[in-house]
Design brief:
The chain is of the alpha/beta class. The chain has two domains: 2-117, 3-Layer(aba) Sandwich (Rossmann fold); 129-222, Orthogonal Bundle (Arc Repressor Mutant, subunit A), CATH 1.10.10. The protein is 41% helix and 20% strand.
């Protein structure tokens, strides 16, 4: 497995590379966003670890450009920017995870292993599914309401598919984390909440009073059906 690491701090870059090489990964290093894009195009890594604040092109824009071409390659943000808005922006752009600096070696490796394990193209229904007035086309990674297209990430589609499969039932947070992120995923509840919040903004008529993705206090979420 080859992992692309992009960070403008040479000490951090070499430390991350040593950590990953010690666990058996091949590493490709980039010291700015443009170099990261060039390396992604030429090396086709299995996973990317991106800092946010980088010269030439920041990590957000690197993620945006890669996601436009490849919706499935795992992307992890490794950043000292830890405000909720930073995490939300990263997830909205299609990142698989957001790891706050400083982090432990074992946490990082566990998150990488999980992202790689979940990186296979998801097994999604071939037919559309109906969520009230929203029609979801899983294989096309999009939804439609009243003729308006809504782009979705693979993980967002997986969340909607699971809720649809269990229409009327409360689906636990653990189940959603397991099936959409993997058993080894560190259960940082805000990550799930932020994905749900992002989805609501795009598919609910009123995100403050959701009708498609309902919260079930103390359990998880539900599509009433």
């Amino acid at each position: 497995m080859t992992i692309l690491i992009a960070d403008d701090d040479p000490v951090t870059l070499e430390a991350l590379a040593a950590c990953l090489r010690g666990d058996g990964y091949t590493t490709v290093l980039a010291s700015d966003g443009q170099a990261a894009l060039d390396a992604w195009r030429s090396q086709a890594p299995d996973l990317l670890c991106l800092d946010i604040m980088m010269p030439r092109i920041d990590g957000y824009d690197v993620c945006r450009q890669i996601r436009a071409a490849d919706p499935f390659v795992p992307i992890l943000f490794l950043s000292a920017k830890s405000e909720e808005v930073d995490v939300v922006v990263g997830l909205q752009l299609g990142a698989d995870d957001f790891v706050r600096k400083p982090f432990g070696k074992h946490e990082l490796l566990a998150r990488i292993r999980t992202a790689l394990r979940r990186s296979q193209r998801p097994s999604l229904p071939t037919t559309s599914i109906q969520l009230r007035d929203v029609v979801v086309y899983p294989k096309e990674l999009r939804a439609v309401r009243e003729g308006r297209d809504i782009d979705l990430t693979p993980r967002e589609v997986s969340l909607l598919v699971i809720l649809h499969q269990h229409a009327g039932e409360a689906v636990s947070r653990d189940t959603l984390l397991d099936r959409c992120w993997g058993l080894e995923y560190y259960p940082e509840s805000r990550t799930l909440d932020q994905h749900i919040a992002n989805l609501r903004k795009r598919i609910e008529r009123d995100p403050a009073a959701p009708e498609i993705i309902e919260s079930v206090r103390g359990v998880g979420y539900r599509f009433r059906g």
